[in-house]
Structures are given as C-alpha cells and as structure tokens.
Amino acid sequence: MTTIPSIACLGVIGKNNNPLHISIFPSQPNNAPLRTPLQFSLLLSSTLDIFEARSKANLTSGGGLSGDFGLLHAIDERLAAYGFETNTGVRFVAVVDMRGRIAGGDAGRGPAVGLREGDMKLVFRAMQTAYIRLLQNPFYDPDEHSPPTGRGGKKISSRRFTEDMRRIGESWRPGVAAV
Amino acid sequence: MDGYAPAYVAHNVPLLVVSGLGSAQQDRADLSIEGVRIASEVLPVESEDAQVLLRHFKDSDADGLPWNGREYSGRKKFKVKIVGREYVLPLRSARLPESSRVLDSHTSYPVNRPVLHSPLSPLTPGASVFPDGLVDPRWVEKHQDLVPSAYVSFYEFTSDPKLAILHDNQLKSDINNTKRILSQSGYRTRLIVALLSEGSIIKSPEVEDRLINIRKATGLDSKTSLFFLPPQSSPVELKAFVETIISTIYPLCIEYYRDLSKHSRRKRNRGIIPLPTSPPTSGTSQTLSSQGWNVRYDFKLGVFAEFRQEMDAAVRSYESGYDALLGPDVFEAIASWSPRWDEARLLADVFAIRILRCLLWNRNSTAAVRRWHSHRERIRDFVDRRGKGSSTYGWEAWEARWATVMAEIIEKASISEFTSESTSFYLHPEKSITIGERLEPLECLHHPGYWFYLASKHLMHRRARALAIPEEDRSPPGWSPASQIASKAYTYDTYLCPEPHEENPLPGRKGVDHSLLIIESLTKAIAEFEKRKQTRLVHELSLQSANESMRREDWDTALQILRPLWQKMSFRREGWWDAVEEIGWALRNAAVHVGDGGTIVAVDWELLNRSFVYRPKWHYDITKSLEGVKQVTTKPVVVLHDQDVHSFLSATFVFEQAEGKVGELCHYQLAVTSSALPASAPVTMAEVRIEFDGSMKPLILRHKSTTEDNTQDRGEVLLSTVSLSDTLSGKRSSQSGSGQDRRPTLTGEDDLTFRPGQTRVFGFSSLLREAGDATAVSATFSLASEHFDLDYVQRFENTTAPDVWWGERSVKRRLVRPNASTITVLPKPPKVEMRFIELQDQYYTNENITLQLEVINGEDVDSITSLDVRLLGDRSPPLTLKLAAASETETETDRSNSLPGLSIGKIASAASSLVEILIPAIDLPATYDLMMKASYHLVSDMETPIYRSVVTQLTLINPFEANYDFSPRIHPDPWPSFFNHDETENTGTASQDIAVHGLAQQWCLTSRYFSFAAEDLIVEDIDIEILSTNGAIKCTTNKASPIPSGGIRVSPKSLEEAEFDVFTQKISLDDRSTATLDVSLAIKWRRDKEDSTLNTTILAVPRLLVSSNEPRVLASVSYSGTIHSTVHFDVTIENSSSHFLTFGLNMEPSEKFAFSGMKQATLQLVPLSRRTVRFRLIPFVRGDWIGPIRCVIRDRYFQKVLKIAPTEGMKIDKDGILLWVPPDEEF
Predict the structure, then answer these.
(1) B578 to chain A, minimum CA–CA distance in Å?
(2) Region B209-219: what's the mean pLDDT?
(3) Interface touch A113/B438, C-beta < 8 Å
(4) Nearest Cβ partner of B425 from A73, A147, A153?
(5) Minimum CA–CA partner of A145 in chain B
(6) A114/B440 Cβ within 8 A
(7) Are B1009 and B1141 part of one and the same domain?
(8) Which of B372, B444, B578 to probe the A interface (max A CBs under 10 A)?
(9) InterPro entries recorded for this chain (chain A) (predicted)?
C-alpha cells in the first residue's frame, strides 16, 4: 500500500494573526481527519511563530519577495506545514499529510514519497485566486475580518470560498498540473 | 540515550594518561582492579610549575565537547586522565578459568594448552558475551577509559650536581622499569617522559650531557618521547610546553589506534573463528557465527576510526557492521526469547546512534534523518516479524526513546544554525542531495524541540497502550500462575522498558509515571521552542504539559502553568477561540481542585461568551460559579480587564453631540451588548461605573430590581432613560477601607440585568459643568454575589465599527465622528452685552472724549459684574471709568473684589448699567484699541467666572488744517524822522513798553483753514498767539475779520479764511537786522450740539519773516469818494535803509484804463523816509480786474527793479499788479 501526500488542512490567517478560514480534509486509510479541529487550529497558530521569525529575517536580508515561505515546519513524520504570505499580510497555510492518500492506479511511477520544493506553489496560487475573488465581492469588507485595531476579526463565511478551498484540498496531489 | 551504556554511545577520543604530576591521591580505586600495575618509586613532582601544568592538562581535556568537527580541531584533542605514580592497566588476556584447568587434568582434551583471549571476548568463558554474544560495552570502556594511547610520566630533574648522578640513575631505572611493564602488558601504549628541571639551575652543557645520557640509557626518542622543561619558565612557556607535548604526541597516538584498527582488520580478513578458551558447557552450545564476528570487528574498526576522528571511515565500518548485524545470519538467527536478542537489538541501536553522530559530524543532516528513519523502519520490521510486534507499549517506548536519542544527538552536535541567534527552525538539505529531489519535510533536520515533542507523542501512545493491558497481566510476578507469566513474556516487549506490572501497575502499587515522562519530554521541547521564540507552540505544549500534570492530580503545577498561560496567550488576542476555550476549561478544572476562586470566576466569565462552544451540561450562570468548590476560603475579589479576557459584555459610550456648552444639557448613551451563549442565565450587575477623563464627573448606575415581570422586554435592543442625581460617593467604601476619596458623582438607577444577545441602551442627560474635553474612558461592571465580587473593566477604545446613537423603537443613527465617546465642552457663552450709547462718528484731537458704555445683563439671573477698560496703542493716555448712575454703592461691590477692574455691582436680569469712560484730550492724531472686559458671576453660580470682552477701535484725527499767507501792508503811522531828535525818549514810559523807536510795519496774516471733521463744527473764536519773536521787535496782532457771536458754522470739507493784522516795530531805529515771528493759530470750536464743551485746536504757523533793511515798494488802492469811477493807485516807496537812494519811476499806459500822474520821474529818498506817488486811474471796465499796471520802480544806483508788493484789494500776476474795479453801483 503506497501512500502519497495529501492536504490535511488549509488555513487562511488574517493580518491580525486571526483565523479567517480553516478547512480540514480526511486522510487515508481511515478516511478521517488525522487530528481534531482544535489540534489543527493549534497547528495553524504555531506556524505564525515561523511566519514572524522569517518575516523579521526577510526584513534584514531583503529576501522573501515572492511571499512563498515554503516549508514552515514539520510537526511530525506525517504532518508538515507550508506557508505563503500575500502583500496584504494574509497568510495561507497548507498542512500536508505525507501519507494521506493511497496511491491510485498510477502507482507505476513508483512510490512518490516526499515533496518537491515547488509542489505547493500550485496550492497557494489557487488559494490566492480564490481569495482575490472573495475580495472582489463588494459585500466582503476586509476591515471587518482584520480590523485595524489589531485584535481578532470575523471568519470568512463565503460559501463559494469554502467550496473553493474544498476543491483545492481534495484535488491536489503531488505533481498535478492544476487544481 | 539513558538506556545505553555511556561508553557505548559516547564519542571516542584518544586517551592520555598523565602521571606523576601533583599529589598522588587520584584514582586509588583503580588500583584495586585486576591488571598490570605500573608503579614507580620516584615521588611525584609537586612544584608550583607542576600544578600549573596539571591545570593545563585538565583544561585540554576533550571529554564532553560537542560532537562536531569544529570543536575537535582545536587544542583539545585528548581525553586526559590524571593519575599519580601508579596506574593499573586491565589484563589483556583472561586468566585460565579454574574449571578448565580442572578439566584439563582429567579429560583427554587433546589441546595441549588452551588459547587465552581477552576477558571481554566471546571466546573467554566467564565473559558476559560468552559464548555467542556480540559486543560487551566494557570493551569500549576499556579503550576509552583504561588503556591509554600514551602514558606521560613526569619526573623532576634535579639541579644539585652532587645528587645528579644518583638521581639520573634512579630516573633511568624507573623509566626502564615502566617501559618494561608497558611492553609486558601487551598494549602498545607509548611512554612519554617529561622532565621538569628544578628551580635554580642555569642551562649548561652539563645538563645537555645528562639528558643525552638518560636518553641513551632509556632508548627514548628525544623528539617525540622525551621532553625537558627548562627552569624558571614563564606561564606562557608552561602552557606552550603542554601544547607542544600534546601536538607532538597526537600523531603518534593516532598511529596507535591505527595499529589497533589494522589488528582488527587483519583478524576480520582472516575469516576464521578462533577457538574458545574452553567450549561452552552450559545452555546452548551455540557459538558466535563468523558473520557475528564480522559485526564485532566492524564495530571495533568503527570505534577505532572514531578515536582517530576519521568519521567517514567510521561510518563505513559501522554501516557494514550494521548491515551484517541485521542481515540474515546474525540478528535473524537469534531466538527472540533469548536475552541475546535484546543485546543484538541494543547493538543495532548503538550502531545507528554512532552512524547518526558521524553523519551529523560531517553535516549530512538530511542523510542523518533518513538514517534515523530507516533504522526505525528496519527495527519495526524485525519486531513485527520476529519480536512481539510494534503494537506494544514497548515499541512505543522505544519510539519515544529513539526520538529522544535524535534530539540529544542534535543537541550534542551543537549545529551552528541551531545555536546561533539565527532563526532557523530546520536545516536545509545538504549539498549532496540533488535539488528537486522529493523530500519528506521532516528530512530537513528540525531542531531538537521537534524531536522531544515527537518523543512526547510516542510517550502518550505508550501510555495508551499500557492502559490497555488487561488486568491479569498487570499482577506482579509471583501472584499469577507460571503459565500466565510465560504468556506475558511472549506478549510484551520489555526491551529497555519495564514489565507490564510496572508499566501499568495495579492500583496501590508503584510503577511508571507516564505523565511525568511526558512532562519531562515536553519541558525539554518547550525549552527548545522558547529559545527560538515559538511562543504559540510553547503555549500549545504548555497546555499539554498542564493536562498531564492534571492527570497526575498535580493541580498546583497545572495551575501554575495555566494561569499565566491563560492571561498572556496569543490565542485570545488573535481570535483562536477553540484554543482559548480549551485552555479556559483546563484552567477552570485545575482551579477548582486547588480552590482558586478568583480564577474560577474569571474563567467562567470568559466562557459565557458566544464565541465558545456550548456545553449542554454546564449551567452557564456566573453566580453559581463557586458552587461546589470547597477549598475557597476567602471571598475572592476579581478584577478583569477587557484586554485580558474575551468578555461577553461589551460596552460603547457615545455623546450625542461632539460639542456642548457649560450649563447646557448634554445627552449621552451607554450601550451594553451581551454576546453570551443563548442558553446562559441573565447576568445582573450591582452597578456600572463610567469613568471620564477630563471635565466630567464619574457616573454610577446602580441596579434597581423592577418588580414587574419584564419578560416582554426581551427585545434585542432595550432603551431606557435613566435620570441622574448628583451625589458624593466613596469609591467602593467597603473595599478601599477608608471612604476618604469621596468624589462627586452622578448616580442613577436602573435594572442592570443583561440577557444573552440583548443590547441594553441607557440614555442619560446631565448638565455640563466644566469647560474642556471630556472622554469616557472606561466602564466598570461590578457584580457582587455572596461568594465573590467581580469587577469587569472595559475601556472605551476606538473601534472601526461606527458609533451609533439609539433612538426610540431601535432606530439607529450613525454618528460620523472619529471618537464619539469624547465631548468638547465649551465655556458658557457670556450673555452680558456691552454697547456704547451716543457714540460719535468721529473723535478729534484736543477733545475730551466721554464714552458711554451700557452693560446689559442678558443672563436669566442677576449677575455681579465688574468692568475693566483699557486703551491700547502708542502712548495711550490713562482713562478713567465712572459709573453713570450714583446708585452703584451697594454692598456687593465689596464682595466681588476678586474680579478685576471697576466693580459695577449687581445687575438685575435684563437690566443694564451705564459706565462712562473718560479719555483726556489727546494732542496727536492716532488710532487706539479700546478693550472692554466684563467679568461676572451669576448669582446662581458664584463659582464660575464668566468673561465677556469687546474691542473697538478709536481713531482720532485733527479737525482742522490751515495754510497761511503773510503779506505786507502800509503802516498808517508816520515814520519817525531820521533828522529829528525826540527828547521824550526813555523817560516816563512804562517799563514793559520800553524803547520802541524803530520802524513800524504792518503785515497781514491770512489764514485759510480747512475742516476735516465729519460733521459741522462751530468755530467760536479764532486767534493768533504770538509764541516768540526774534530780532528785537515788538509785535501786536489784531483780528482783522471779526467772528460773529455764536461762531461760524464750518461744514465738513469747507475752507474758511481769517485775516489778522500784525504790527511789528523795531525796538531800535538803528537796528536793520531781519526779524522773525513765531505764531500759532488757535481755533476754539465745539460740536454742533447743546452744551458741548469748547475745545481748542492749536495749529502751528510757519515762521514769519519781517525784514526791514531793504527798500520796498508797496502799492495800495483807494477809491475816490468824490469822483465817480476814479481809482487812486498809490505807490509807496519805503527807504528803510540809512542811505540816500534814487529811484526811477516809469508808468506805462494801458488799454484797460487811463491814468493821470507821473509817467516818468526820478524820486530821491533820504534815509528812513517814505514817499507815495499817486496815480488816478479811470478804468474802462467795471466789475473786473484791470491791469496789469506796468509801473516800474528802478533803483538808479544799483540798477535794480524793485518789486511792487500789493496790499489789500489787489493781486499780482506775472506781468504786474491787478486792481479790482468794482461794478458801477458800488462806487
């Protein structure tokens, strides 16, 4: 039984470090999420430490213009968090379960263990597209979700955005061309 | 790495034994072991230098250095062991066992003599690995701790020439003895001799000879084995001496280990199993297979390579040994019930640990992780196939151990990225990994915190497995039948972990404290994460740690972790409510057990918020918070602040208007929204207190229970208007003890019950009392129950949500202001008015000005007023104020002394008071500012002074300006004769009229003055004042044109003329000098109205010149009274000089008139005489000017034409004099 990575959780974190959206996806073989929603929340929150540290480092070194933070950290052998930051300070986090999916019929390529550097870019591009589409909605007020006072904010309630996240999370697998 | 023998896993460094330095108390215990004893008669060196050397040796001990190439490249290369004069080396070969000796004698064993092997070899009976074990950890220990690569022996080199020979001989024999023992021991340990010369000798050839002598006698190499420390060496030299020894012998020592490697490799390559000393007799007859021997040799080769710090070689040997060990012939061949199985497994772990270390040493971090991973997978495979499976607690225990081992290795390797300040959480793959290769995320080597965290997770799994052990397996040995024990042995993997009865003991028995293990692991992880400022992860792990503490019922520890966590966690600020909730419930649980009432109440308050998940069994009633909590001793007083807690109550405060004025009614609202869980009980507050910053008094809203059933009030928004009353209240007098800080407050009462989801709006209105800005700062909700007191303080902060003003029936109105909780209170507008009565359009200079100011009290009540008036400007005169009415002398004036200026006293409402402002006459035109300031109190509010000020401009101008014409006239009096003598001179005349004998002249000063006034002015009189005369003349003036009584009315911008006759007479007849007159024109005028005062405006007149020494010609005209239409034209020539003058006269005829008289004549004038020549003219015109009359008078002597000056009735133009001919009727 060969397993390949799958997305276990997609998180959108606002400028105030507040959760805007969390989607959790089931993992094989039990077809159930690997962790509880609380654990995923904590996992997403813990990536903020790394975002902060990296941003600080980027400030001094002048790097990180693309916004792709790559691997943030691997919390254990199965779960690893990848991150992306938009220009407006919204963070996308993809938590990947390294054994989340049972390789299907195309197992002929051999066990695809691990991830390449660019595998997650696709996910973040798709997430950003979905987020931009959300922002284009005139009824979506970004200030409501990340108030300038710097505390908390509402979650995203757009059904379409949630649907987009679900689609991204379910259709992504290493090496796919589009999600 | 606790479970592994320390020597097994430690990094190996060459061992150096230093003997003979310092006092010899070290390592006495070693002497007790069996072995080859090196002993020496010579006393240890105990000089000061020896102590310093000793210290340097100790400093260069490489034991415990981090495991990486950087550290070992430095000075510290050896593990240094300091011993005295004696040292024991372990036996190289075991003694012949007694039993075999016995056997020897009885049986017909053909072997002539048993082969002796190392006591640690599987070939030696009695060894722990006999007959089929693989490696004894003591073997590593032997090389690392007991058998040195070099044995440094220090001796004193005496300086006394007498003792020298004796001493040197002693040295020689001792060195030779030691050398002999070493070579007999079988070890190839090098002997190094270091000689410390005694204090005072000077280096001399003799010493060289002695050294050569010793060297020859002992066969030591002078470069590498014999060191000599010259006397009186400096500390630097001492240090350099030690370094020289170390750096010189290090290559030799490496060579020593290389020889050992060669030995092992030779044996490995020989490929035959040596015969044991005696065959195994007990247990199995199995002996170690040749593959097993290879494992042994590979292990040895690896260790020796580590001694040489050749990590690549070590990895190769270890990998080869590891593969052999886990290959089909060694591990697979061992029965899983055998203790050898565990030993082999342990050896596999040790191999893996050593490989990991070597990989990290060479910074192959990703390879290390992969190795770590593959070892686990291989062992899991083994355990699943041959052992007891990987679903036992033992497996999880090993998993935890394996993760901890990795963490500890990473820590020991002290990788620079993890130790420095840089913020890397993991290492990027090393260069040998190709870019684009698929990588497991964990294969980027993460810092130890992650590994400890991983270990803690496995420990939790281990506990879960342990708790699942059935009870019959948990009974201690001896309690259960043997069959069960046997089955236990087959079920449970106890590799490096306890038996089931300890792993999960029956109640009341001691066993493994899983929680403590987890907490230990978490604590290590937290320390690592904290180092890298991963605060959120630290919070998460702290929560887990606290949960474990609670599992152990260590409530105090849990509370100590959770309480600060609950307060400072970032989850609340960032809105991760599920995490906040988790921590909240955990904290409540701990606090209930500890009895921390305050914490319970605080958590309960927060958990009422709708953001949290509803727990159906929970009461959600803050008043019941402490029910059932036993340990609470004192009544807790809790103060919560909005930034510290995610409160369900939120309050906003708005003023209806952004501005208000003192004394006006101001409306404001407090809106309290409860976002409590819908199922929670309503919360009733005792009071709500609103604090203001600035000029408003605090407001207290107290609870008043309403008797009526207010179930119908369950609307979303409930608006109520609260009437306020002024009170003095102590701020919680029961709390603050002394009720001293009693402050004036506004107090109101209303029902303070807040239902979930409801917004209560309290409308207030109060009078503004004080000017300035007022900002509502905070609302304090106080809840008093019988078990606790709670204050929730919310600060009103700027939010992005628009401020809303609630109207009746939930009508909302947005307040578009940046901060609606601020009001600007303006001072009360003064209603006292000031105005001038009968203010003139224009005021003039030289006028006494009286201004009448009416002060009108426009306030609703009487006011006590005083007035201050100032004239501001250049050289402003002082002014006086006068009350117009005489009735001002009331007693109030005394009381209102505090106000500046003239006290006016009480002015009744809507009444007025009149004040006169007197400004003295000002000479120069100017512009002044007249500032009037009325300050007053109202009778109703004596505290607040109110000010009203008015500024008007006062411009003063000159009412008149004038110009002047000064022309000569003919003095009617006869001139004194130059030739007569008058006797009456100087006698009997009045003293002031002294001696006026000179020529008298008459002049006419014509003044034309112009009115600049804005209205008609009455000029009462106009006169000339003679200010001064120069040149000894007497002067009198006479008004030529009389002023009618009642004055002349001068209208604005009109020109008036006034003529004055000026008579001048020289005091002396002989004085011919020129004289001047200074006069001024004084116009006395008044305004054109009743009883106006008379003002005098003085206008300056340019200096008038009165000359008298030149002859002059004056023309005059007179009209004949007898002959109609005849005009007499007289030309008077005055000779005021003292010369006899001759003038020629020539009168030309004209077309305008006919004349009779001299047409041409010569006139002779004696000194001081005058002569008049008359012409009679008959003009041809009437009512017109005729002329010019061309009459030329010429001084014959000087040939100079004298100018004829006209007098009254004449004028002059450029051709000559013109005469006025009146019309016929006037003749």
Answers:
(1) 6
(2) 85
(3) yes
(4) A73
(5) B575
(6) yes
(7) no
(8) B578
(9) Longin-like_dom_sf, Sedlin
Give me the mean pLDDT over the B922-949 stretch: 83
CB A52 within 8 A of CB A83: no
Put simply, whether B418 touches A (Cβ < 8 Å) is no
* Among B826, B855, B873, residue at a domain's last position: B826
- B585, B681: one domain: no
Residue A96 distance to chain B (closest CA, Å): 9
Domains of chain A: 3-171 (3.30.450.70)
Burial class of residue A79 (count of CB atoms within 10 Å of its CB; 0-12, 13-18, 19+): buried
User: Do B439 and A49 make contact, defined as CB atoms within 8 angstroms?
Assistant: no
**Residues B797, B651 share a domain:** yes
Residues B1133 and B1202 in one domain: yes
Q: Which of B605, B608, B564, B601 is nearest to B583 (CA)?
A: B564
- Tokens matching residue B677: 């869980």
Q: Which two tokens stand for residue B1058?
A: 């006034």
pLDDT at B1035 exceeding the cut of 90? no
**CA–CA gap between residue B814 and residue B1152 (Å, rounded):** 99
Nearest-by-CA chain B residue for A45: B536
3-state secondary structure of B1068: coil
Q: Judge whether B438 is closer than 8 Å to chain A, CB to CB.
A: yes
**Which residues on adjacent β-strands are paired with residue B1116?**
B1130
Q: What is the pLDDT of residue B981?
A: 65
Give the pLDDT score at B995. Answer: 61
B980/A contact by beta carbon, under 8 A: no
Candidates A49, A77, A153; nearest CB to B535:
A49
* Residue B805 sits in the same domain as residue B932: no
Same domain, B921 and B884: yes
* Structural domain that includes position B757: 635-826
Q: What is the pLDDT of residue B108?
A: 44
ipTM of the complex model: 0.94
Q: Do B574 and A152 touch (CB under 8 A)?
A: yes
CATH of the domain at B1191: 2.60.40.10
Angle at CA B290, nearest 5°, toward B496 and B275?
Answer: 105
Query: Has this prediction a pTM greater than 0.80?
Result: no
Judge whether residue B110 has pLDDT over 50: no
The string of DSSP codes covering A29-52 is TTTB-SS-HHHHHHHHHHHHHHHH
**Within a 10 A sphere around the Cβ of B96, how many other Cβ atoms?**
16
Total CB pairs under 8 A between chain A and B:
122
Question: Which among B437, B450, B578 has CB closest to A38?
Answer: B578
The predicted-structure confidence for B44-77, as pLDDT tens digits, reads as follows 888 888 888 888 888 888 887 888 877 777 778 8
More confident site: B1214 or B917: B917
Residues of A in contact with B578 (CB under 8 A): 37-38, 41
Least confident of B305-314, B382-391, B469-478, B759-768: B469-478
pLDDT digits (tens, 9 = 90+) for B1156-1180: 888 888 988 888 888 888 888 888 8
HEC assignment per residue over B1173-1225: EEEEEEECCCCEEEEEECEEEEECCCCEEECEEECCCEEECCCCEEEEECCHH
Q: Which residues of A touch B455 (CB under 8 A)?
A: none
pLDDT of residue A91: 93
Residue-level pLDDT at B319: 93
Q: Which two tokens stand for residue B997?
A: 């004998």
Q: DSSP labels for B1034-1051?
A: EEEEEESSPPPTT-EEE-
Q: Do A45 and B574 touch (CB under 8 A)?
A: yes
Out of B826, B848, B865, a domain closes at B826
| Domain contains B711 | yes
Instruction: Compute CA B638 distance to the chain's CA centroid, rounded to the nearest angstrom.
Output: 31
Q: Do B909 and B1033 lie in a common domain?
A: no
Are B579 and A18 within 8 A, CB to CB? no
Report which secondary-structure segment, H or E, holds B301: helix B290-307
**Same domain for B640 and B630:** no
